[in-house]
DNA sequence: CTAAACTTTACGGATTTCCGTAAGGCGGTA
DNA sequence: TACCGCCTTACGGAAATCCGTAAAGTTTAG
């Protein structure tokens, strides 16, 4: 069994529920809980540098903003930072996201080892995911179908990146710049322009205001 | 202390976290967990009819849809059904909602006894809420300000008219036209422009995309 | 009543969005 | 191979946005 496990989850009740279950159902020796991404990262970094690294991270994706400005604001930020440091630590994501494209990208781009979709069986699934991970296999909640992502009204992670940044007030020029900085291709302003234009058709939106309002209401952003 | 407590919360990890904490920190004798509103209601109804009613319900507001069609789909549905049956049971809501208007209506229209906003301290708050409720007092998470906070960020019907039309893809010119047609004053494009600009300051938005995304997320549009 | 403060409106300029055209790249296929 | 369809990118023009200035109207306080 894993010796050192870290749980990153901002809701205290959820965090505690996971920690208790892992203590009871698995024989994990050392379980650490963190409510902020920055704290989680620091703890992993220190342990890594001390030669006593964590074996497993269980993390949420979405973290509420607190009163203080934080460097790592989401589970993705956290995982990205950790993977630069340590490619051995196993990572299981435990989140409400159920978009297959999004989850696929976590496995492909962030090298996570398991994905559990929060729900009425997610604690049991988490235990299963950990057992699979122990044997170097991956785990995905059964209700997620990574293959048949219903093309129709699905957004891939690239679309999501653009839309999220637009909804945070960035211009297409700024988003293009950001993509170049993060070495994500394609990155030209023109391509972003065209992509958004195609999303107008796809979702029946008149313009960007309309599109953002629709997608936020659908919970996609 | 309360003798019979029911927890209605669809996320297994969260549910378990709450149950464990109440067992450890309070001396509750009988804690029951339910993942579906319908099940929670039935259990409360049966206990009530048997003359051994529950003393306390801790419930979430939002419940994921499952494969089967359910009668009670939200915490509000559940509370509404329970209050028709039993006005004595104490109800504490534990949810991510942080809209003061929404929470106010839970106290006023649904006669709840406490409101805890999910977050990094919500388990501790829940324990406090239960202790307050025991003494027939109400509890609300300190970060929620039922009186003031929302005055500042309130939208009048004129603002709402503009924002709703913007979010439906109309331009300021078109909205100006529409106002003139409906004989609502002021109606000039310039005034609309200025009003929206002031809303940027009020809500800390960079531009209209940002503003619309924020307001839809706040449930104001 | 009057001065100060705010609102409505117009206008103009820099920037951005929206959309059409067009050139070049890349993969599939007959 | 040559052709087709799709994606990326550049460019340009019309329309829209964002924001500053300014004049005229309205409200508020003393």
TrEMBL record, chains A, B:
Family annotation (SUPFAM superfamilies): C-terminal effector domain of the bipartite response regulators, CheY-like
InterPro entries assigned: CheY-like_superfamily (IPR011006), EvgA-like (IPR051015), Sig_transdc_resp-reg_C-effctor (IPR016032), WH-like_DNA-bd_sf (IPR036388)
Gene3D superfamilies, alphabetized: 3.40.50.2300, Winged helix-like DNA-binding domain superfamily/Winged helix DNA-binding domain
Identification of the protein by name: Response regulator transcription factor
């Amino acid at each position: 069994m894993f010796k050192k496990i870290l749980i990153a989850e901002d809701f205290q009740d959820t965090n505690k529920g996971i920690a208790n279950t892992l203590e009871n159902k698995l024989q994990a020796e050392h379980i650490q809980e963190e409510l902020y991404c920055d704290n989680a990262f620091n703890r992993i970094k220190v342990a890594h540098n001390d030669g006593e690294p964590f074996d497993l991270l269980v993390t949420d994706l979405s973290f509420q903003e607190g009163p203080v400005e934080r460097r790592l604001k989401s589970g993705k930020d956290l995982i990205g930072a950790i993977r630069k440091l340590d490619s051995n630590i196993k990572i299981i994501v435990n989140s409400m996201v159920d978009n297959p494209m999004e989850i696929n990208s976590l496995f492909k781009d962030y090298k996570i080892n398991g994905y559990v979709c929060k729900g009425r069986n997610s604690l049991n699934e988490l235990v299963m995911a950990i057992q699979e991970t122990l044997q170097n296999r991956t785990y995905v909640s059964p209700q997620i179908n990574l293959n048949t992502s219903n093309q129709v009204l699905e957004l891939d992670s690239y679309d999501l990146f653009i839309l999220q940044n637009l909804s945070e007030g960035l211009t297409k020029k700024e988003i293009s710049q950001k993509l170049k900085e993060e070495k994500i291709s394609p990155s030209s302003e023109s391509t972003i322009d065209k992509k958004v234009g195609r999303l107008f058709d796809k979702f029946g939106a008149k313009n960007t205001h309309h599109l953002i309002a629709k997608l936020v209401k659908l919970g996609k952003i």
